[in-house]
User: What shape does this take?
Amino acid sequence: MSNPFSNRVPSLSGPARDIVPVTPDDGAGLGFTAVGLYVETGGTLAVVTVSGDARTFTVGDFSIVPVGVEQVMATGTSAAGIHAYRV
Assistant: This one.
């Protein structure tokens, strides 16, 4: 079966090429820019966005957060099952 995305240039308009589990960490960023997050168990998310701003907000179970993220902080994050959409 051929890959319909093989000739597509990575783009912020999607689709993501991978989804990666995230362990919140106050000291280290993701190592890439996530084009969004998926959260299995709702709660509070503390993130650093691509614009360099620290943001804290609440999400529900099975939420998709369509915001560019560089880091998910451990302090202030109670949500679980966090995954990053990677281009």
Remarks:
- The chain has a mean pLDDT of 90.
- Residues 18-86 form one domain.
